[in-house]
Amino acid sequence: LQKTFVMIKPDGVKRKLVGEIIGRIERKGLDIIAMKLVKMSKEAAEKLYEEHKGKSFYQDLVSYITSGPVLCMVVAGDEAVAVMRKMIGATDPKEASPGTIRGDLALSKGENVIHASDSEEKAKKEMSIFFSDSEIIAG
Ligand code: GTP
Ligand code: MG
After folding, report:
1. In this predicted model, what pLDDT tens digit does every residue of 10-24 receive, in sequence order?
2. Closest CA relative to residue 18, chosen from 111, 94, 114
3. Assuming Cys at both sites, which of 13, 36, 89, 122 could form a disulfide with 96, CB separation 3.0 to 4.6 Å?
4. Ligand 2: distance of its center to the CA of 46 in Å?
5. Is the ipTM of this complex over 0.90?
6. Which residue's alpha carbon is nearest to atom 8 within ligand 1?
């Protein structure tokens, strides 16, 4: 069993896609074991996207991700990290396959609806930015 960090980005919340996306995660058979709606601080955004510091899109990314509320979740299940990455689809929604969340619900690389951790190590780091251990329901 694995845990991963999943976040519906400001455009997803604004476009009222929360129910649609949570429905997909639930129907897949994954378990949501923590959930929180937050207006992200600049500090949290910089920690979450540390790996992209210095890239051309970094400032745009930080201002976009702090522009409105995001829905943060911890999702658990067998191979949860890889399964969620497959479900969200490619970073650029124009490349994302139909049937994936980005493939079905987004069109812009800058505003691509959802984030999911790309490794178990990153999942641990990202969960700890938004959740204390006591906020995550133990299996
Ligand atoms: P996350 O799950 O959000 O981390 O996306 P990802 O892992 O599929 O992509 P990556 O970590 O490489 O990039 C993080 C985020 O930065 C992306 O989801 C995009 O929102 C944004 N991003 C990446 N590349 C570009 C780019 O070339 N232009 C713009 N505007 N945004 C980008
Ligand atoms: Mg990433």
Report:
1. 999 999 999 999 999
2. 114
3. 89
4. 13
5. yes
6. 91
